Amino acid sequence: MIKILHVNLDAHGDMADITDEVRKFVKESGKREGAVLVFAKGSTGAITTIEYEPGLKKDFPRIMDKIAPYGDHYEHHKTWGDDNGSSHVKAAIVGPSIVVPFKDGELLLGMWQQIVIVNFDTRPRRREVILQIL
Ligand code: ZN
Fold first, then answer.
1. Dist. CA 62 → ligand 1 center (Å)
2. CA of 79 to the centre of ligand 1 (A)
3. Which of 53, 73, 76, 129 is deepest in the core (most CB within 10 A)?
């Protein structure tokens, strides 16, 4: 069973909480126990968990930009003439997917642990997130 979510995000590390959509998908599947794969399509998007609150929503992209600064030199820009070398590096570090276990139809997440899609690209994107019951 697969479902595709579409999420509109701003550039440079904007994120959205998709926990409710994932929870709903697990309920719809009718499965009681298993795991759900959450996968971001594209090489400048990423999936992780975080405490989704306004402070971390700003902290996370700010710290990621110290690891792979937007203004740094990227050979990638010579390959395609684009400006998103930092976006690809950030997305590769965070990773495109997570697997979340569920039991009795409920996601086994911490109380302050939300599932987020992050858009590291340098322009706003409509991101695709693929959900699959495993
Ligand atoms: Zn690129």
1. 20
2. 8
3. 129
